[in-house]
């Protein structure tokens, strides 16, 4: 399976809302598998299709911390049905914002509906890291990055650090 190339902020794909998938076919299943492999290769716990330049509502997640027993979740057209009023704050990072981490406050629990890789409707209710990860990835599908949840000052500090890194890498 080929690895897909990651889009790094401020790539315009990351700020563009993605379109729903009409049919879960063989091409979509292959794309989900390639996304999972790309996520594992880069040590991520979630990846949305627009992070590899594809504007479709597809997400892969695996929050298990044991590489020997992966627990991949593949989400097609995920939608949030309910979130808790209670919020919690977790330090988040993102494969499209490399090496930058910040505390983001989000609802502590989330309940979502999605299509699985066979096109069957499923629901997940999660809390903790899973809830944060699901909301982070659905944000991607809507063109939002975790740094968009931060204050303008913190966000611009991170973007400035990233620009320096890009320059450094180009040397
Ligand atoms: Zn991300």
Structure commentary:
With 171 residues, the chain is an alpha+beta fold. The protein contains three helices and seven strands. Helix content is 29%, strand content 30%. Strand 6 and strand 7 form a beta hairpin. The two termini are 31 Å apart. The structure holds zinc ion. The site of zinc ion (ZN) has 5 residues, from helix 2.
Entry keywords:
171 residues; alpha+beta; 5-stranded antiparallel sheet; 3 helices; 29% helix; binds zinc ion
Per-chain topology:
Elements: H1 26-41, E1 46-48, E2 58-61, E3 73-83, E4 87-94, E5 97-107, E6 109-115, E7 121-127, H2 128-141, H3 152-170
Antiparallel strand pairs: 1-2, 2-3, 3-6, 4-5, 6-7
Ligand kinds: zinc ion
The count of strands amounts to 7
Average pLDDT level:
94
Strand content: 25-35%
Helix proportion of residues, in percent?
A: 25-40%
Shape: globular
Give the helices and strands as they follow along the chain: HEEEEEEEHH
The number of distinct helices, counting runs of at least 4 residues, comes to 3
Largest β sheet strand count, sense and barrel closure: 5 strands, antiparallel
- Estimated structural class: alpha+beta
Compute the CA-based radius of gyration. Answer: 16 Å
Low-confidence stretches: none
N-C termini distance = 31 Å
Strand order, main sheet: write it out.
1-2-3-6-7
